[in-house]
TrEMBL record:
<dbReference type="InterPro" id="IPR000515">
    <property type="entry name" value="MetI-like"/>
</dbReference>
<feature type="transmembrane region" description="Helical">
    <location>
        <begin position="120"/>
        <end position="141"/>
    </location>
</feature>
<keyword id="KW-0812">Transmembrane</keyword>
<feature type="transmembrane region" description="Helical">
    <location>
        <begin position="174"/>
        <end position="202"/>
    </location>
</feature>
<keyword id="KW-0472">Membrane</keyword>
<feature type="transmembrane region" description="Helical">
    <location>
        <begin position="375"/>
        <end position="400"/>
    </location>
</feature>
<comment type="similarity">
    <text>Belongs to the binding-protein-dependent transport system permease family.</text>
</comment>
<feature type="transmembrane region" description="Helical">
    <location>
        <begin position="345"/>
        <end position="363"/>
    </location>
</feature>
<keyword id="KW-1003">Cell membrane</keyword>
<feature type="transmembrane region" description="Helical">
    <location>
        <begin position="472"/>
        <end position="495"/>
    </location>
</feature>
<feature type="transmembrane region" description="Helical">
    <location>
        <begin position="222"/>
        <end position="244"/>
    </location>
</feature>
<feature type="transmembrane region" description="Helical">
    <location>
        <begin position="279"/>
        <end position="302"/>
    </location>
</feature>
<dbReference type="InterPro" id="IPR035906">
    <property type="entry name" value="MetI-like_sf"/>
</dbReference>
<feature type="transmembrane region" description="Helical">
    <location>
        <begin position="86"/>
        <end position="108"/>
    </location>
</feature>
<protein>
    <submittedName>
        <fullName>Iron ABC transporter permease</fullName>
    </submittedName>
</protein>
<keyword id="KW-0997">Cell inner membrane</keyword>
<feature type="transmembrane region" description="Helical">
    <location>
        <begin position="47"/>
        <end position="74"/>
    </location>
</feature>
Length: 551
């Protein structure tokens, strides 16, 4: 417990506390008048209202579209299902800057959907947020639905219930904890979105996250940034509390069954002689909605590739050739930045795996004493906070605190290790949430038997826990690597000008005028998306039925 807690305190709690404290401490005295000052501004209420509206609408749309997707992708078996699952998951781990660029290229004047005039609108941001969070609902709900015992629904059907009534009165209540948990996480990710909103909304449709960045970098108003950070922390804590309670309810849901006994072939045509009340219509509707959503998910990515090949009125690879040259306001080539991103992501993933693995190991235990159980639950909740606390706050906090950390005569702000540490802070919750369900599912009697046979604690850990959780550790490595590869919020503060990561370079290229810089940004986004997609595809191949459904 000491190592992960020390890591969290040193590289998360301390920088955030210093950043927030700078806004509330004036001349050495606590001054909370900033709350009244900030909340007296109409701009603040507009930003908070936009954040809640965007997150609420996007979360509702993600749930309405994601539940049918979970039914089709996790309750049925069909050819190419693994490919569709990977495609659905890719948007969630795509760098937010890439998502913003993909939608911008689709909606901008001259783009395929430019005639809709949605560029820079509320609808564009909501669509991008749904694109990003659809996988959260599909995987979160599908992970439970795939293992939900179907006999209760079958009994309701045998007693005369229609397919819709059986779903509404039996299956839906059993799925409610998973739906609430997924919706809470989707709301959290929508409310804290940074890169996507910054690219698509600019200053007109900002969120609390982008406003913290503006107040910090442009106005140098740390008091306003501190107040908004506290507001965001309250929103995050509320979402995490709801998600944690729903997750505990999901663990107490109806009896689970072997996925091989639950998942059945997907039939879009009703077999001759089959009664019309067999639920075929619901399956057909769900399959149609899912197919439409999958196509819509693919459209921005396909358009991104197509636009990157467009050179003036012709087609060519000019933008990709330009990636080997330094230009467009950056001092390194895109390939050099990609190599930097890969090296940084490897370091961050290793660090996140060690810290997150230890947290999952501790939290997976079931102490007998109530106080110890509450402490374990609290540790689980605390390590989820980096998911929602502003990465801008963390990054700026690093700049304020890492000059002489713990009295050391070393300025870590000039060290290349600071970026991997910041990315690891963001990736640790993903590792915990991926590994923890598998560790909790291990029968404690296996450990007791190994210990009884003379195995030392280290050998018990190696032969029981690590052995059974090996595939989930592979999943955790993949998702942590993808998250680190595309992290932008904290990295934008910490990356050195002569050694930026690929998301930082893409954002700089977008900000430069001229079609050449924009074309390079599109090509660089394709490179980053392909890297991320390859990682996700490899992760999906590691997944067993019933494992890793939440992420």
């Amino acid at each position: 417990m000491a190592l992960p807690l020390g890591f969290l305190l040193l590289f998360f709690a301390y920088p955030v506390a210093v950043m927030v404290g700078r806004g509330f401490v004036v001349d050495g005295h606590l001054d909370l008048s900033g709350f009244a000052d900030v909340f007296s501004r109409p701009r603040t209420w507009r930003i908070v209202g936009q954040t809640l509206a965007q997150a609420g609408v996007a979360t509702s749309a993600s749930v309405l579209l994601g539940v049918p997707g979970a039914y089709v992708l996790y309750r049925h078996r069909f050819r190419g299902r693994a490919v569709v699952r990977a495609l659905v998951t890719v948007p969630f781990v795509l760098p937010t800057v890439v998502v913003g660029v993909a939608f911008r290229s689709l909606l901008v004047e001259g783009g395929p959907l430019g005639f809709l005039h949605l560029d820079g609108t509320f609808a564009a941001i909501v669509a991008a947020l749904v694109f990003f969070n659809y996988a959260v609902v599909v995987r979160g709900v599908g992970g439970l639905w795939e293992r939900l015992d179907p006999r209760a629904e079958q009994a309701a059907r045998a007693l005369g219930a229609t397919p819709w009534r059986a779903f509404r009165t039996v299956t839906l209540p059993a799925l409610t904890p998973a739906i609430v948990s997924a919706a809470s996480l989707a709301f959290l990710f929508c409310a804290t979105a940074f890169g996507t909103v910054l690219v698509l909304g600019g200053l007109r449709f900002g969120t609390i996250e982008t406003e913290i960045w503006i107040q910090t970098t442009q106005f140098l108003d740390l008091r306003a940034a501190a107040v908004l950070s506290v507001v965001q922390l309250v929103v995050v804590a509320g979402a995490l509390t709801v998600a944690a309670r729903a997750r505990r309810g999901r663990e107490r849901a109806l009896a689970l069954a072997d996925p091989e006994l639950v998942v059945r072939p997907l039939r879009l045509r009703r077999e001759p002689g089959t009664p019309r009340r067999d639920g075929h219509a619901l399956t057909l509707v769900a399959a149609g909605v899912t197919a439409l959503v999958v196509v819509l998910l693919a459209v921005p990515l396909v358009n991104l590739v197509v636009r990157s090949l467009r050179v003036g009125e012709a087609w060519g690879l000019d933008h990709y050739r330009a990636l080997g040259t330094a230009g467009g306001g950056v001092t390194v080539t895109v390939w050099q930045a990609a190599l930097t991103s890969l090296r940084t992501a490897v370091d961050a993933t290793l660090l996140a795996l060690v810290v997150g693995g230890l947290v999952a190991l501790v939290v997976s235990r079931r102490p007998r004493r109530p106080a110890a159980r509450r402490a374990v639950a609290g540790l689980d909740a605390v390590f989820m906070l980096p998911l929602g606390v502003s990465a801008v706050t963390v990054g700026f906090g690093f700049l304020l605190t890492m000059d002489h950390l713990l009295g050391l005569d070393t300025d870590l702000r000039r060290s290349p290790v600071l970026v991997p540490i910041a990315q690891a802070v963001v990736a640790v919750p993903l590792v915990v949430r991926t590994v923890l369900p598998v560790l909790r599912a291990i029968d404690p009697r296996l450990r007791e038997a190994a210990a009884t046979l003379g195995a030392a604690p280290g050998r018990v850990l190696r032969t029981v826990d690590v052995s059974l959780a090996a595939r989930s550790l592979g999943l955790a490595v993949g998702f942590a690597f993808a998250a680190s590869l595309g992290e932008f919020g904290a990295t934008s503060f910490l990356a050195r000008p002569d050694n930026p990561t690929l998301p930082v370079v893409i954002f700089r290229l977008i900000g430069r005028p001229g079609p050449d810089s924009y074309g390079m940004a599109l090509a660089a986004s394709v490179v980053l998306a392909v890297l991320t997609a390859c990682v996700v595809a490899a992760c999906e191949r590691l997944r067993r039925p019933g494992e890793g459904g939440e992420w």
